[in-house]
Every structure is written in structure tokens, then in C-alpha cells.
Specification:
- A hairpin with a 2-residue loop joins strand 2 and strand 3.
- 31% of the residues lie in helices and 20% in strands.
- The strands form four sheets. The chain has a six-stranded parallel beta sheet with strand order 5-4-1-13-14-15.
- The chain has 259 residues and is of the alpha/beta class.
Amino acid sequence: MTLAILFDLDGVFYQADKAIAGAADVSRWVKDNAIPHLFLTNTSSRPRSALVEKLAGFGIDTDEAHILTPPVAAVRWLQQNLSGEKIALFVPDKTKVEFSDFEIAQQDEEVAAVIIGDLGCDWDFATLNRAFQLLMSEHRPQFIALGMTRYWRADDGLHLDVAPFVMALSHAADVEPLVMGKPAISFYKAAVDILARDVDQIVMVGDDIRGDVNGAQQAGLKAVLVRTGKFREVDLELGIKPDVVLDSVVDFPAWYESK
């Protein structure tokens, strides 16, 4: 049986702006063997076209169809559930291209969904309060969070990510978000649907014991943990049991071919 593969990106194929040694060879191995696969990332601050360009800089040749991001998963959900409805977007301008099939509401228009991504320094009180007011409208639109990452590390230190703003809105408006991003089952379900495989025919490869391994396993997938990126040995003491632990994604083809 040929397993389809879900690959995390940051921490598996590269770390920050540095490629992980030998990782590009794995991407070529997947492509040369025509193995069904997707690259998964929680980023909502850039479109897939930018990720394709970034990966090319690391020697990884792919296209937008093989990349699943929270905006892409959200669009799939919207198409299946709220097709033709107006939406409110709180995402960076360059990410809005992923939602080009939908009509973006103007300031005071009623919406069917409020979508929150990583706005970074563009958050201010007025913007956050507008999202709150929309969620509190009589219509009670669907609340969609593009991931639940709490923070990330930049050159100048730690920065807040999307989760703190989602949690603030969730608490204030008393509404639970539909999360699109690892480790949410909804995100993995989108990947399964795209690959058109049963869950027991898919394996996830990542460096995050919770987001990649536990999230995938909760969705019914196999999960491989690599000792690169954010991996720490203490991760193996958390009670989450990967199907296998490898030193690097470079070791994955040998494990895969032995199955």
C-alpha cells in the first residue's frame, strides 16, 4: 500500500531562512516516485505563491496545489457551507488573494463569516472591535480562526500570533471559533479530502509533538516525529507516542520504503 504523505515545512525542510541539510533531496524523492503528498503550514500571513517561491530558494520544487494553509482550508469550508455569502476578512492584504472567489463585505454590511488571521502590527483597537461587533450581530456569523498559534520568534524576539486575538474575541462574543490550522481536526480533514485517501493511508511528518503528531493522530493518521526544528527530547515525555521518531526528514524515505 502506498502511503500518502503530509509534510510540515518549518522545522522539517527549513528552519527560519536556513535549509535543513538533505531535505530538498526528500522533496525530489517524493516527486520522482509520484507519491501523493501535501505540504502543510499554519502560516496565514502570506499566500501560497510566496511559499512556492520560498521553497524554490531551498531547492524544493512544488506548486500551490501541493500546499495547504489555513486560508486554503477555510476557503474549502466556505465553498462547501457558505457559497455565495459575504465574508469579513481580518488577514494581511497579500493573503486576501486566497479568498478571491468570495465577496468581501464593506464596513457596515452583514456577513456570513468572520475570518481572523495573523494581522501582526496591523491590529489595533478599532480593528479588533470591528471584528467583535460583527460577531455580536443578530445574524451571529461563523467565526473562523486561521490557526491557533500563540506566538512566534522573530529576529527581535517573541511576537504575538493569531491565537491571543482569537481568544479575546471568543471570550468577548461568547462564540467558539472553527479553527483551520494544526492541530485542529478540521484542518487535517481538509488535507484528507484533498488527497482523497482513507486516514489509515496517510502519514504526517513534523517536528511539533502536539501540532503535527498529536493533531494528526487525533484525526486518525499515522505520525512521524523528526528531531529537527522545535523538537526537544522532553517532548517524548509528554505521553504522546509518535509512530516513529527519526533524526531528520532525510531518514524518512528509508523508513517509508521499509513499510
